[in-house]
Amino acid sequence: MAIYLVGDVQGCYVELQQVLDQANFDPQHDELWLTGDLVARGPDSLATLRFLKSLGSVAKPVLGNHDLHLLAIWEGFKKPHKKDLLEPLLEASDAPELIEWLAQQPLLRKLPDSNAYMSHAGIAPQWDVETAIKQAAYVQSCLQRDRRYYLGIMYGNNPAAWNQAEDAEQRFRYSVNALTRMRYCTSSGDLEFTHKEHPDHNPDNGLYPWFELDGNLGETEWVIGHWATLDGNCSNPNVYALDTGCVWGGYMTLLRWQDKKIFRVPSIKRAG
Predict the structure, then answer these.
(1) Could you list the pLDDT tens digit for every one of the 272 residues in the chain?
(2) Whose CA is closest to 62, among 106, 26, 125?
(3) Domain with 93 in it: what CATH number?
(4) Is the Cβ–Cβ distance between 74 and 68 less than 8 Å?
(5) Facing residues of 32 across strands?
(6) Distance (Å) of CA 41 to CA 66, 94, 242, 248
(7) pTM exceeds 0.85 for this model
(8) Domain total for the chain?
């Protein structure tokens, strides 16, 4: 069995199929792990979710910020943006089943037989691994227990620091932000959400990529998506950044975990 990990699909169903074909992915024997943001902005979120749901236990995604936003749209807290191209999914006859399948997915997974983890954005510098695991499970349990309530309090940038989370709602929001939205942090590890550029282009503003601050990464490996401007290049060798911006005209990137071989196909936007 091979474990394949793919970066943010974001509805780019055709490119997902192409990169799986390139790697000779076999759902009878292999697993497909996904870094989150399965939907939105790409042309076919509906086909993407239908395919992944059809794989059953072979597909092992984590939730990204766009996935959580879709759940909030479904529950009526947000209106879909036209640029997200979600109308075919939201209007599909099997949308309830697809949304429910998506809502059951966790925010963090541990890869088998290794000290390696996958989450959409990474691990907060103010957490150790045990806290990250605990808080990811906490968020998942909240969404299973009272999805409407917790999706309703999910949005917002505060608290920026873990030690400033004073109640259950704030711990929930911080955990969602750390696991699905984080890129840059202050020197003390506080979360910052304005900047998205590549670290080489980041002005000297007292911000640092989270993976340059995190002390957990000497002992663990982390697989992430979310940060497309990294283009798969990360200054920390223990971080595998797999979002290479397919939906923006970049590439769909797939990593075979056992030998770390990379498979990559161009976006239809690029190829066209």
Answers:
(1) 999 999 999 999 999 999 999 999 999 999 999 999 999 999 999 999 999 999 999 999 999 999 999 999 999 999 999 999 999 999 999 999 999 999 999 999 999 999 999 999 999 999 999 999 999 999 999 999 999 999 999 999 999 999 999 999 999 999 999 999 999 999 999 999 999 999 988 777 899 999 999 988 999 999 999 999 999 999 999 999 999 999 999 999 999 999 999 999 999 976 54
(2) 106
(3) 3.60.21.10
(4) no
(5) 4, 59
(6) 9, 20, 17, 9
(7) yes
(8) 1
Burial letters 29-54, b for 16+ CB under 10 A, else e: ebbbbbbbbbbbbbbbbbbbbbbbee
Q: Are 143 and 150 in contact (CB under 8 A)?
A: yes
* Block residue for tokens 């807290």: 77
Is residue 98 helix, strand or coil? helix
C-alpha Rg value of the chain to the nearest Å: 17
How far is Cα 35 from Cα 118, in angstroms, rounded to an integer?
Answer: 7
- Residues spanned by the domain of 74: 3-271
Q: Which residues contact 120 (CB under 8 A, 6 or more apart)?
A: 35, 36, 37, 62, 63, 64, 65, 107, 179, 180, 224, 225, 226
Lookup: tokens for 105: 């997915």
Secondary structure, 3-state, 30-67:
CEEEECCCCCCCCCCHHHHHHHHHHCHHHEEECCCHHH
